[in-house]
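step 4 of 6: structure.
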Amino acid sequence: EIVLTQSPATLSVSPGERATLSCRSSHSFSSNLAWYQQKPGQAPRLLIYGASTRATGIPARFSGSGSGTEFTLTISSLQSEDIAVYYCQQYDNWPPITFGQGTRLDFK
Amino acid sequence: EVQLVGSGGGLVQPGRSLRLSCTTSGFTFGDYAMSWVRQTPGKGLEWVGFIRNKAYGGTSEYAASVKDRFTISRDESKSIAYLQMNSLKTEDTGVYYCIGSLDILILQHWGQGILVTVSS
């Protein structure tokens, strides 16, 4: 089973500043990684798949990168509506599909 | 508009059964794979399983923690997916999400979540 470790657990960023979230994998793989955003009381929402492809309707300030064991989600200019918990998910080696434990993003 | 509406949750005793339903609209159900993911305070997001669409045989896969206890099915005529949960354990407590996806491994459209509490 592939274990995903996200860091930091909590990230505080000033409005308009860049946020960089990390997802590290226990096994190397190319690009079968997705990112999800979850706001309080809501279901997760797909942001990125294939490590770097934005899902339909996702703003361009969200970008994904990485391969191997290191993946990154970047929000170029943090907006109030971006305050949420972010999860990475691998679908390279399954079953099972696995998730990271999440990074909570809030305003500094 | 894509909608997935979950129902059937509640409080159930350990060892009993419960069936969750996911009623969908706004997309061609037959083209989509249907997945279930649960969220618990202890384990975070945990994949439960999925069922492929008919074009891919309508077969299903499960997480080891629920295999042989949970069954996913789908009713094409009603555009509903089901999660039958038997022999429930306290550790099955959580919020269950149904997801519809064109690519079964990329969790595209999520329902609102169904709370299941297993307790005596």
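step 5 of 6: annotate
 - DSSP finds no helices and ten strands in chain A.
 - Chain A touches chain B through 22 residues (CB under 8 Å).
step 6 of 6: archive
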